[in-house]
């Protein structure tokens, strides 16, 4: 499979109406990716702050947007300048878990709207050299941020059978038990270091399984989630969100897996009991038929929105 030219941004066409983008609106896009959501906000005249932990994603996003939007790209650890109050687009090269300290360090205002579109982009998953995909044979890496110390191959080498079982269960892999067992047996003979080795092993264990998706889909997803600390990052981010928003401001989170959506829902419920946020809908918003026609990947996308009430 070749990588898409540009990531298909879920709910992009609904964003302006949902958030009420207009000139002067201050928008925080915590997951820049290929820049679809940021672009929508910039086109509506918003001031935008975009985070991404992946330097390659930042370069791509800048390339996709019209040259009339020129960002100031900031490495928070080394930046010492002043941010002008009328900035139009800032890109922050950082993990979104650092958002509060970055906002404080740069003296940024509170936000009218925040978006987190979780997980890697379609481009990151399918691009060669990243080790996310079973469709190219390469080292099993999967780190979005090269500063992370542990790759997917490292996890397969060191986790014990019980830990591998727990890991595969994170992505609802029904064959988690036999897979954990065979990986532990197999790695004694030959370490599992490449995407093809792992995909072949999973396909062998699941040869009688039925389904429309590739048999290794859930195993690859589970490894990606753990390598990139995705669940931990969501928890760490969520606790910071209410204090970043203006009163009446909106947080939106797009997730692609039921486990992630559950975390977001639990957080919104907790914030509601504390009287800090109010969920906009009980059920998450799902992609329109039009979106599904354009991108099948969005079939599992869920958008939850909540408003800051105090
Ligand atoms: C699904 S893509 C976002 C796509 C984007 N909304 C668009 O319209 O093109 C997610 C992006 O978030 C980045 N990302 C994932 N986890 C992150 C984190 N903890 N901190 C900062 N960026 C992160 C990824 O590198 C990726 O570029």
Protein architecture, described:
By secondary structure, the chain is of the alpha/beta class. The protein has 2 domains: 12-119 and 231-308, Rossmann fold (3-Layer(aba) Sandwich), CATH 3.40.50; 133-227, DNA polymerase, domain 1 (Orthogonal Bundle). It has 14 helices and 8 strands. It has helices at 15-19, 36-43, 55-64, 99-106, 122-126, 152-158, 161-170, 176-189, 195-205, 217-227, 230-238, 241-244, 258-273, 289-294, and strands at 26-29, 47-52, 72-74, 89-93, 111-117, 245-255, 277-279, 302-308. It has an 8-stranded mixed β-sheet, with helices on both faces. Strand 1 (26-29), helix 2 (36-43) and strand 2 form a beta-alpha-beta unit. It is globular and about 60 Å long. S-adenosylmethionine (SAM) binds next to helix 2 and strand 2. S-adenosylmethionine (SAM) binds at residues 7, 9, 31-37, 51-54, 57, 95-96, 117, 119-121, 144, 233.
The total count of strands amounts to 8
Structural class: alpha/beta
User: What is the C-level CATH assignment of the largest domain?
Assistant: Alpha Beta
Q: CATH topology of the largest domain, what is it called?
A: Rossmann fold
Instruction: Estimate nothing, just give the exact number of structural domains.
Output: 2
- The number of helical runs is 14
Shape: globular
Radius of gyration: 20 Å
The unique ligands bound to this protein are: S-adenosylmethionine
| CATH-defined superfamily of the largest domain | Vaccinia Virus protein VP39
The low-confidence runs, each spanning 5 or more residues with pLDDT under 50, are none
Q: Largest beta sheet: what is the strand line-up?
A: 3-4-2-1-5-6-8-7
Largest sheet: 8 strands, mixed
Strand content: 5-15%
């Amino acid at each position: 499979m070749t990588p898409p030219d540009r990531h298909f941004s879920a709910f992009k066409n609904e964003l302006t109406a949902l958030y009420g983008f207009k000139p002067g609106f201050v928008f925080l896009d915590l997951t820049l990716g290929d820049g679809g959501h940021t672009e929508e906000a910039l086109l509506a005249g918003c001031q935008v702050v975009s985070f991404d932990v992946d330097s390659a994603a930042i370069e791509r996003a800048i390339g996709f947007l019209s040259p009339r939007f020129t960002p100031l790209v900031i490495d928070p650890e080394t930046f010492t300048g002043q941010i002008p109050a009328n900035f139009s687009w800032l890109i922050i090269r950082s993990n979104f878990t650092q958002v509060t300290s970055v906002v404080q360090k740069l003296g940024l205002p509170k936000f009218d709207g925040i978006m987190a579109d979780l997980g890697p982009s379609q481009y990151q998953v399918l691009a060669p050299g990243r080790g996310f995909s079973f469709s190219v044979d390469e080292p099993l890496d999967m780190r979005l941020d090269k500063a992370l110390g542990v790759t997917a191959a490292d996890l397969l080498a060191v986790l014990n059978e019980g830990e591998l079982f727990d890991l595969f269960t994170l992505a609802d892999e029904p064959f988690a038990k036999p897979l954990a067992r065979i990986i532990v047996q197999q790695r004694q003979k030959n370490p599992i270091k490449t995407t093809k080795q792992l995909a072949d092993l999973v396909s062998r264990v699941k040869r009688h399984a039925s389904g429309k998706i590739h048999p290794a889909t859930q195993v690859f997803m589970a490894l990606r989630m753990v390598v990139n600390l995705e669940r931990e990052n969501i928890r760490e981010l969520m606790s910071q969100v209410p204090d970043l928003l203006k009163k009446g401001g909106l947080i939106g989170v797009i997730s692609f897996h039921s486990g992630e959506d559950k975390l977001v829902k639990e957080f919104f419920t907790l914030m509601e009991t504390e009287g800090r946020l109010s969920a906009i809908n009980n059920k998450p918003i799902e992609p329109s038929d039009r979106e599904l026609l354009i991108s099948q990947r969005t079939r599992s996308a869920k958008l939850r929105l909540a408003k800051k009430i105090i």
